[in-house]
Amino acid sequence: MASIKEVKNQRNNIDVEGTIKEISEPRTVTTRYGESQVCDAYLVDAEGDRIKLSLWGDDIKKVKNDDKISIKGGYTNTFRNELQLNIPKKSGELKVVG
Question: What's domain 4-96's architecture?
Fold first, then answer.
């Protein structure tokens, strides 16, 4: 598992654990694949570092504030000048671990 500090320097195939903080209300967006729900949250690790996490579709319902989660196969991108962690729909995995 990587730390958030390490995640910020990776681009893909990211495995990380942390605690969910500051979940926003889901909003409906139109993508090239059609309409979908998305919300933003922050993933905070044991060292206190944090990264913005984009949650899409069913992943939104899996988590709530203060849940400890594990992400496998994530990737980062920059959106509106902010680095974000994302979970690919087909190859990524989000699990609540505590």
Answer: Beta Barrel (2.40)
